[in-house]
């Protein structure tokens, strides 16, 4: 009888430790996120399931072209690509991205651009000054400028301005569902 009681206590302890570790991993290190909508096509599709690393930006800062999840409102998170980091001037001219006056390649847009009809553009011309209410000339400290990969169907920094870094949940690191789309985030 004592053996059964000890065995049950060991199982209960093991279960409690596993539950506490799972909660810690979920709250502190990683979070599952489901993509809602077409704004990141073709990189991420509607209903893709991702793992978001919360610790990446505890130890470092977002880098240009990271895919991040951030709090857009109290009830809604967005997933977008970081285009500008503090100190960057961001502009698009003739469907080409310019950061600090230099043209920057965006290979993740190649497939999307190929789907467009002739003479159709993916990204309308803009400058950072034009799309921020504050008229920022560069991305301010503690903020990032984000765009969706599906530029003609994305609510992003062109509409709501720069994103405070303290609103960033984490970096998308891995797509795990559906099975045919399993891959590291790029």
TrEMBL record:
Record's protein name: Signal peptidase I
Entry superkingdom: Bacteria
Membrane topology of the entry: Single-pass type II membrane protein
Domain Peptidase S26: 8-177
Organism of derivation: Thalassobacillus devorans
Subcellular localization: Cell membrane; Membrane
Pfam families: Peptidase_S26
Reactions catalysed: Cleavage of hydrophobic, N-terminal signal or leader sequences from secreted and periplasmic proteins
Principal location class: membrane
UniProt-listed Enzyme Commission number(s): 3.4.21.89
Keywords of this entry: Hydrolase, Protease
Presence of keyword Zinc: no
Family, similarity comment: Belongs to the peptidase S26 family.
Main EC class the enzyme belongs to: hydrolase
